[in-house]
Amino acid sequence: MARSDVRSLTGSKALLVFGAVYAAAIGFSLLTRFGGGVACMWLATGVLAPLLAKLPPRLWWRVGVAAMSVSGILTATAGLGPIAALPLAPLNFAEAAIVALALRRFAPVNDGALRSIGQVAVVIGGGVLAAGVSGLPAAFVAAQVTPTDVWSNWFNWTTGHSLGTIALAPIGLLLLSGDLGRWWAEAAAKERLEAAILAAVVTLVAMVTFTQSSRPLLFLPLLPVVLTTFRLGRVGAAVSTLILSAIAILFTLRGAGPIALMPPDPAMRVHFVQFYLATVVLTVLPAAADLRRRKDVLRRLEASEARYRLVTENASDVVLTLDPDGLIRFVSPSIEGLGDYRVAALVGTPAVHLLAPEYRAAAARAHLDALRHPGTSQVVEVETRPDAEGVQRWIEMRMRAIESGAAHDPLELVCAIRDVSKRKSVEAELQRAARTDPLTGLANRRLFNDALDLVLDRVRRDNQAMACIAIFDIDHFKRVNDAFGHDAGDRVLARFAEVAARVTRAKDLVARLGGEEFGLVLPGAGREEAHAICDRLRTEFAGAAMVLDDGSYVWSTVSAGIAALGPDDTRADAMRVADAALYAAKRAGRDRLVLAA
Q1: What digits encode the pLDDT tens for the residues 135-157?
Q2: Does domain 1-177 bear CATH number 1.10.1740?
Q3: Domain residue spans in the chain?
Q4: pTM
Q5: How many CB atoms lie within 10 A of CB 580?
Q6: CATH of domain 435-595
Q7: How far apart, in Å, do the first and last CA atoms of the chain sit?
Q8: Check whether domain 315-424 has CATH 3.30.450.20, yes or no
Q9: What confidence tens digit (pLDDT) does each residue in 101-112 have?
Q10: CA 597 to each of CA 519, 527, 565, 580: distance values in angstroms, whole numbers, following the listed order
């Protein structure tokens, strides 16, 4: 509670107002002292407990002094006398304090009154418990100063105090929390008119019910009270029960109303009317609190949905909502940025139709995994189907199953789609760069080794498979660098790569192993075919003169060693045999091939 609110509740004028209301409640209750014992109806706790619940305990002493003074004076002059007033005044205050402490501990009202069923339960339970506890010493005191017994006094005290608290405390909480005033200030003219009409209907029906004594019409006021509760919420529940309570108590005390049909025992009639009113309160207040909770949840849901739609309609990522069968229920407008898609045309269609056929199975598996494990995200990267221009995009799909709230489809799938084509392109370029020689554009040694391992594995698994490798080395390459410069040497290496790419087969792999050394993997080639391919490469390279910038010509030759791959060979074995054949070619005069035995 704000400091200004605390001052307003504890100032002199406020205490005078409280004292007047508290005195009226006590005075009204003293009219029900049937039989000379304690009153059968006690409304003062319903006034005092809400006030204490709103105040910090350090300020209770001010209200306590005022309450006990008023209670003591009235009890001494119009109640059980001055001897009983001394202990009963603090007992009345202690009872209200118990209810207030229960509210502060278990259901604080600082954020508004009767907003939850728990708060209503604390008012009811706290009222009954406080009345039962305080009633024991009060009944003993009353039995000492009056010719009444302890049991009847305890019953009258507990019943009257608890039922009075249940009936009056809710309206007190609403008034002190300012909820009633805020509702009136914020309500539109139409809502105020409706509230006035409903209050008038409750008043009229209550008057009709309690001004006659010939028919048991106690059920009749429940209809407008429940209607008012559902239309106006907790404010309507509190006001309608207050109107009903005032009319019911007033006419019952005058001997009118349906309760007059009971035996002529005034105490029993007062207890019954309080029980009737408590039943009405127990009927409508929990419903009002639940309606408030539902309204709060609905408001948060509407706000959440508005934020969700704002995000989905303006985000670059695509958001899909799918039913368990994979049909699109909702798609954000950003889908149109992924190709020739239209939102209206996509709703109701299978989401997998957005994908290239070869990736639909992977997306379907992720879909099923998400349904099997609600609340966990499943991520899959797939390619879209080609758009009208033949463009395909890589997308990342994050799927999560959530509760839909529908009985026929309890789960729905939320799928966030992000275009990752640029990342995939960068990854592909990085992967290509990691496996490619930057000068010649040929495969590097790493890719050569991988390709050689694959071919060796195929040869091991298939006795009929054939394959060879060859290692080429440019003859006298150092002389080219020394005579013409390193730029010329680089051009010689690039020239070899051009010739090799032209004369080898599509399935062959040509790689630069380092420096002026190159390797060929020749899958499916026997010794003779491998020799023919390599010799063609050697011949064409030797006859391809390179013209330098100054007009001079550079001729280069290559030597190579060729090795056939066997089922028992390892990569190291194959490379060692091919290297030995290469060195044999160099020793034999260069510009030649040697086929390993």
Answers
A1: 899 889 988 988 888 988 898 88
A2: no
A3: 1-177, 183-313, 315-424, 435-595
A4: 0.52
A5: 15
A6: 3.30.70.270
A7: 99
A8: yes
A9: 988 888 776 655
A10: 19, 10, 11, 11
